[in-house]
Amino acid sequence: MTDKSGAELWKEHQSAFDRVRAVAVTVSEPKPADWIAEQAHVAGNTARDHLRRLVEMNVLRTTTGGTATRYEPDPLYTRMQALRDLLDNRTRDDLLELRGNLQEQVEEWQTEYDADSPSELRERAAHADTAEATREMRRTAND
Amino acid sequence: MFAFDGGYDPGQASHTVLLELRRTIERHPAVQHASGEPPGQFIRVVATLDPVILGSEADEGTLTLRWYAGETADADPEFAFHYNESSDFDCGWHHDPNPHVDGWTHYQERLSADDDYEYETVSFDTLQPVPLLWGILDRLETRLTEH
Fold first, then answer.
1. pTM of the full predicted structure?
2. b or e along B77-113 (b: 16 or more beta carbons within 10 Å of the residue's beta carbon)?
């Protein structure tokens, strides 16, 4: 079974630019324009134009080395998208609760693995307060 | 897709894909709402659908998208796109190690939760998440129209 009619459905609901962007931001390894064009069902030149724009917009970056230019998501853009999602969909209270839960998890891991790594040290330096302190702040905020 | 320091992080890679799948599925006319769980590190996206637009007579339907990007950047992803509806029918397209078919890729369905699943080997043109999603939405509509 082929997905020809799936491609038609996709074309009906997402523009060529959207399709190129959607493929390029979800690759797990850098890919050349022709590969992205094929996946996104657009012509090679169309893909190259859109990819260039996406690089200018800092959505993608190019990798050096090899013959053809290859594209991958810009890690800073990827991180911003994840942050934007958290901020858009949650209130301040939700975020504090989430932060408390995550910190609790980190603390459990620190105890469990008796971690003494540089990343653990960075974590401690960046977040001087504890999960309990975060929860306390949240309770105080609600009073 | 890539960790901040340039290394590969499967949790982050999976989250990036699921964020994009959530954004994408909301473009489909049958989808009323889609949300990712848990916050900040999605392992699934749940989309609420109007089954009638997809050819079913059920009142309510959901499509759950699970995506795991794999232990390394060049590993095949594991995923499941599974549809449930208020009629009790459910079906899904899965790509994961399983005892039911040779290989990873299969379709499974059952008429009600009391029935056993029937499994069938299938293949996809692509394992890229977004084109794959549209292919599966198309197959789902075909299945529900026939059902």
1. 0.82
2. bbbbbbbbbebebbbbbbbeeeeeeeebbbbbbeeee
